[in-house]
């Protein structure tokens, strides 16, 4: 294939069952046992599950009740986010030994651009191997990695040899790799989208590639263009050391369902206080406030309002959240409330427009 844009050497590092692995490392009695971080109460939600628990279908975002039903021997562990942050910073310090182009996605994963790196090592594959070994030596934890010419392919590749493995997709392998890929493996294709693609006869990257841009636009809106280009190996998004958030939010799950708006006002005030703290820490404000309501039957509803000015003050946030709460009748009792602020006052550089043609230097060393 011929790619006429500059090729980069991108590594996606993803820690293996991070929260659960930290708990098993710090408490050897938990090693080899099915554990879930969080989800310990009847209202709780699992934040992370060990690989031993995943064998029983236990996964993040699952209710504690469901997790326990799937795995009767499941051990629930209370989250320790300060400890996870501490370990995450240790891991990031290793990344910065190789490059300053590090884009954290969360505490347990990040992109690294090592096209030019501090070690002068031309092999991204060997760099990824070194990084994973250093993480193991420094933290006692394992990591997996994906290596390729852009962030999309590196992200997809990091899932292939989990846990404690890595996969490199060389430039000359990109097209075949993407054509053979199960559509469910495409980053950005969730369960609902995958089912829609199935109905349209799209099961693999090759199937997706056969669809025109007009067809994908018609059926998937703005995402259609994204699918059209990534399946051709085109993804120009660069590694951004300082990621700009699209929104900032806070939410709370309640031990007992709330059935009246009056009982929710105190909860909303606490959430607004937390949101204000996060906004002040990030030194940003926003115009669009969204109230998130999750009902006792797990259905989700959002209500939003865009103001003509930026706000970051808890009183203004709370005032708008109350207005949204009283906007219409509640459908059921409520188990979760959240407030988020979007349309933030941060400037983001426009990304380079997508190009239709690609060329690849097959001797580009990975």
Automatic annotation (TrEMBL):
- Chain segments annotated as coiled-coil in the UniProt record: 258-285
Species name for this entry?
A: Flagellimonas iocasae
UniProt entry keywords in alphabetical sequence: Coiled coil, Cytoplasm, DNA damage, DNA repair, DNA replication, DNA-binding, DNA-directed DNA polymerase, Magnesium, Metal-binding, Mutator protein, Nucleotidyltransferase, Transferase
Subcellular localization, as worded in the UniProt entry: Cytoplasm
Gene expressing this chain:
dinB
* Cofactor(s) the protein needs: Mg(2+)
Q: Domain of life here?
A: Bacteria
- Which protein, by its recorded name, is this? DNA polymerase IV
Q: What does this protein do?
A: Poorly processive, error-prone DNA polymerase involved in untargeted mutagenesis. Copies undamaged DNA at stalled replication forks, which arise in vivo from mismatched or misaligned primer ends. These misaligned primers can be extended by PolIV. Exhibits no 3'-5' exonuclease (proofreading) activity. May be involved in translesional synthesis, in conjunction with the beta clamp from PolIII.
Which sites are catalytic? 109
Please tell me which top-level EC class this enzyme sits in.
transferase
As to how many cofactors bind and how, the note says: Binds 2 magnesium ions per subunit.
According to UniProt, residues marked as the site described as Substrate discrimination are 19
Record-annotated UmuC domain positions: 10-190
In terms of InterPro entries, this protein maps to: DNA/RNA_pol_sf, DNA_pol_Y-fam_lit_finger_sf, DNA_pol_Y-fam_little_finger, DNA_polymerase-Y, DNApol_IV, PolY_HhH_motif, Rev_trsase/Diguanyl_cyclase, UmuC
EC number(s) on record?
Answer: 2.7.7.7
Database matches in Pfam families: IMS (PF00817), IMS_C (PF11799), IMS_HHH (PF11798)
Catalytically driven reaction(s)? DNA(n) + a 2'-deoxyribonucleoside 5'-triphosphate = DNA(n+1) + diphosphate
Which PROSITE patterns does its entry note?
UMUC (PS50173)
